[in-house]
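Hi C.,

You asked whether I'd gotten around to modeling the 378-residue construct. I have! Everything is below, sequence then structure, no commentary in between.
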Amino acid sequence: MRVFLTLLTTLLVLAAGVFLLRQFNVVDIPAMATQLISRTPTTQTTKQDTNLFNLVKTDDVASVQAAITAGVNVNAQDEFGQTPLMYAASSSTNTDILDALVKAGANINAQTGAGWTALMYAARDSQTLDTLIWLMNAAADPSLKNGEGQSAADLARSNPKMTTAIYERLSELSNGPFDPNWPSGYTVPVEGATISSRPAHWPGAPRAYRNGTHEGFDFYGGTVAVAVEYGTPIRAVAGGTVVRSDLEYVEMTLDEYNEVIEVSKRSLNTPPEMLDKLRGRQVWVEHAGGYVSRYAHLASIPATLTVGSKVKQGDIVGETGNSGTLEAATQTQDDPHPHVEIWKGEDYLGHNLETQQIYDLAKQVFGEKAMPSAVEQE
C-alpha cells in the first residue's frame, strides 16, 4: 500500500510539473496530449491518413494537396479524435493548408470526444492570427464548448498573439446563437461605419422600380455613423482572392439604362443579367470557406486589382460611386453609396429572412460594433 501511495504521489507531482511547464511555455506539448478522454478513433485510420497528419504540420501545401488528390480521408481521426484540420489549426502557419482541407470536405466544426474543435486549437496554440481569422471567416463556430465548458474565447486568453479586437469578436459569439452557414470576423467596407439604420438598405428590401429585391447592404451617408461621399474608399470585408474586377467597365447610356428597367419590369423578378448591369462596376472577392463578397456601384478600382490578386482584410478594393444607376446614366455623381453583398453559392446573406433575423446575422458576420444603435421603423 505504501509503495502504491508513493507511486501515485510521484505521478501527481510529475503531472503538476508538466502542466506548469506548459503554462509558462517552457515545453511544448502537442495538443493531443491534453485530450486523453478520447483514445478510440470513431473512423478507421489508414497509413495514408496518418501521413496526412504529419504533412499538415510541415506547411507543405503541394504535398497536402497531392495526398488529398490521392484520396486521403480529410476527416480521419487520430487516437484522440483529432482531425488533420485540427492539427493544422494548432501548428500550421499557412492558411492554404486549411483552405485545401476545407475545400476537400473537412468538417470545420468537428469535435473530438473531449469537445475540442479546430477553432479552439487555433485560439490556444496558433502562432499567427491569420489561422484563427481564417477559421472564423470560414464559419467555424465560436459558441461550441469543450468538455470542460471552455469556448474558443476562453482558450484565447492564454495565447500571447491574441489581440483585443479578435478576442472581443470571439467573446461576443461565445454564447451563441451562431448560424454555421455564415461566417464571422468580417469588418464593414467603410472605415468607422455601421450597418445602415434603415432596413430598406438591407438585403430582402423590395425594389419596386425594377420589380425585384435588394440583395446587399447599402452604406448611405447619414445612416451609417460616418460621412460617405463620391470617392470614399471601400475596403475588403475579409482577406481573399479577387475573382472579378471590372477594370474596363463602361457606364450605360440613359437609353441602355431605361431598356434594362423595362425588361426588368416585364419580368416576375429582375433577371440576373439585368441586375448585374444595375450593379455597375464591380469587384468580387472569394474568402475562406467559399464565401464571396461583391462590391457594386464603384466609381473606380485600383489598377493593380486584377483577377487572382490577393487582398487582406481592410485593403481598398474600390471607391464609392453610383455606377449602374440612373444618376450615373445621366452623367452625375449624385446618390453615391457602397453596396456590398455576401454570397455562399447561389444564396446571399439575408435571403428570405425577417428584419430581426437579418440584424442578428449581420451582427454575427460584422460584429456588435458594426450595428446601428437604433433601427428605424419602416
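If it helps when you're writing up: DSSP finds 13 helices and twelve strands in the chain.

Thanks,
B.
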